[in-house]
Amino acid sequence: MVWSSVIVLRWHQNATIDVFRPLSQKTRDHIARNVGRFALLVIADEQVAPPPEDVRKLSSEDLMRYGDRIYAVGMVALSSGFTAAALRAAISTVLTFTRTTYPSKIFGTEAECAAWLAPLASRELRNLGNKGRPPESVTPAAMLQFFEATRAGSLI
User: Fold this and answer.
1) Staple 15 to which of 50, 51, 96, 119, CB 3.0 to 4.6 Å?
2) DSSP string covering 15-61, please?
3) CB contact at 8 A, 95 and 73
4) Is there a contact between 44 and 76 (Cβ–Cβ < 8 Å)?
5) Helix axes 140-150, 110-128, angle to 10 degrees
6) pTM for the whole thing?
7) pLDDT tens-digit profile of 67-86?
8) pLDDT, tens digit, for every residue of 14-73?
9) What is the 3-state secondary structure (H, E, C) of 73-126?
10) What is the Cα–Cα distance from 21 to 30, expressed in whole angstroms?
């Protein structure tokens, strides 16, 4: 789902390459049709396990392919305990080996992510300009409302 300049991929179940490949293609199509930079956010629901190697590889390739179009990458791992640690480790590995030039961060809650990402999104929108209109501002509260809407979205 896309909101403002933020692309949100919400994982409701474990990612498999058969499910992730079309989602990756939809994301690439969206990027190709739109101008400007974007933030990419992945929210993994509580029961989601770390993605398998083929999904991590495709994710890394996508991040490298569009690195100049990305202004931030965030990950919210809503699980706890060992599952959360394993998921964070897998995503950290992807981000580390991608050698990103943009800020990236992993969070335990959507609220923490919204507080970090909202100012970055607002700054990006101000940099784009709005052709005489006042610049759009992205607030953490508005971002959290969007995250709530993604819970019922048709994502993984």
Assistant:
1) 51
2) --HHHHHHHHHHHHHHHHHS-S-EEEEEEE-TTPPPPPHHHHHHHHH
3) yes
4) yes
5) 110
6) 0.82
7) 889 899 999 988 878 877 88
8) 889 998 999 889 888 888 888 788 898 889 888 888 889 899 889 888 888 888 898 999
9) EEEEECCCHHHHHHHHHHHHHHHHHHCCCCCEEEECCHHHHHHHHHHHHHHHHH
10) 14
